[in-house]
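dumping this here before i forget
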Amino acid sequence: MEETCNLCGRTVPASCMESHHLVPKHKGGKGMGTIRVCVDCGNQLHLLFSNNELRDRLNTLESLLADERVQRWVQWVRRRREFGVCAKEKKRK
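structure:
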């Protein structure tokens, strides 16, 4: 089974997907909205932004997609069919 990442738009195995809390759980986001992203995008969001930035400024899918750093990441990762955790997962099968 495969799913499509809400951030980069790649179709990846369901095992490579996770729920990303739009407001980090320990910043008050427990029980709030989530989006489905691939593990690569989820990891990258937490490398690019602090939890405070995610809570205060990037707490919707639209605001994430509008951010210049996210746009650069998405353009880069879309050119790689298999990348990071998802590529490792595929090799294990």
